[in-house]
Specification:
The chain is an alpha/beta fold and about 375 residues long. The chain starts with about 45 loop residues before the first strand and ends with a helix. The structure holds pyridoxal-5'-phosphate (PLP). The site of pyridoxal-5'-phosphate has 14 residues, from helix 3. Its EC number is 2.6.1.9. Keywords: Amino-acid biosynthesis, Aminotransferase, Histidine biosynthesis, Pyridoxal phosphate, Transferase.
Length: about 375
Amino acid sequence: MSESAPPTAAPTDRSRAARPVPKPGILDIHAYVPGKATVEGGGAPVKLSANENALGSSPKAREAYASAADKLHVYPDSRATIVRTAIAERYRLEPERLIFGCGSDEVFQLLNQTYLEPGDNMVQGEYGFAAFAIGAYAAGGEVRFAREPDYRIDVDEVLKCVDERTRLVFIANPGNPTGTWIPISEIRRLHDNLPPSVVLVLDGAYGEFVTDPTFDDGLDLARTAQNVVVTHTFSKLYGLASLRVGWGYAPAEIIAAMDRIRLPFNTSIPAQMAAVAALHDEDFQRASIDLVEQWRPWLAQQLGGLKLDVVRPSAANFLLVGFPKTPGRTAVEAEAFLAARGLLVRGVTNYGLPHHVRITIGLEGQNRAVVEALAEFMQR
Ligand SMILES: *Cc1c(COP(=O)(O)O)cnc(C)c1O
């Protein structure tokens, strides 16, 4: 299982300790491991390890960001009103039912903090995003990992994990690191079978990349359900990972509870201004989606031709690629081989996938370089 953090801290008498001792459970948590950003020996690497936008960011967003330079001494608007208004208009949502965070990571953390007490549990897919579980453990909760046969969320497996102490279910759709997604009919079946006391969180970080017209991120379900939260982020399609803006849409009661513990100034003025500009730059969004649409099938086909086992179909801006277990050809060795050529991809051992790597779809030359290097790697 990925990210297992059993609550095994020795029962310490913390009051009598010679130095401050963190509360039980904290030191069992494995800190989040970000995708590599540097190569040994320096040089500018090609970073295909964090699912960032290969086209960078919108020029309009950069302009808006720069125009905030004369406001650095001012506290930001705690309610992020300009982003709130823009999101509400774009997605046709009630502005008061939105919450903004330092990335959607903060929204996940707020949900965990608000709903989990020791003895409670949260349920997620076995390959699910590590940030969900870290926040749950930090809140003293337990995490149950539902099997993902075929690298896909299986609603029946999720439901099997739910019991009377379940407070939250986190589903990334599409998933990371799998890239796969499940239809809204399955999401609705999951929702129908969950107790109304359980919060169903639908993380749509990659939803904007899905071009299948039947895909639905769950916002319509969240409009009427009492226990559904949908999250989105400016980090992926909108190309603003550095600025840390994410949002959630939820029933007013859930938003009000989270707002009680949210840090008041959690999104900065430059970030808010850039987010609004990015949201309005539809040309940049179109170009970003087109790039992924053009190169993801090509990359999958080329890697398949090298006898690598591409998890399909990915609807996100990355591919999960399986490697042989033969020494010399393993995923760990492939990651190192690529890194030595300045190509950074993401090992996913800590997601319970020791034989896979995750590769972000890059620009044409970057994708070609990955294929060439892996052809060499497989022929050694
Ligand atoms: C990248 C990503 C996010 C976005 O995180 P931010 O904190 O908004 O940058 C959320 N969920 C998943 C599954 C992701 O991969």
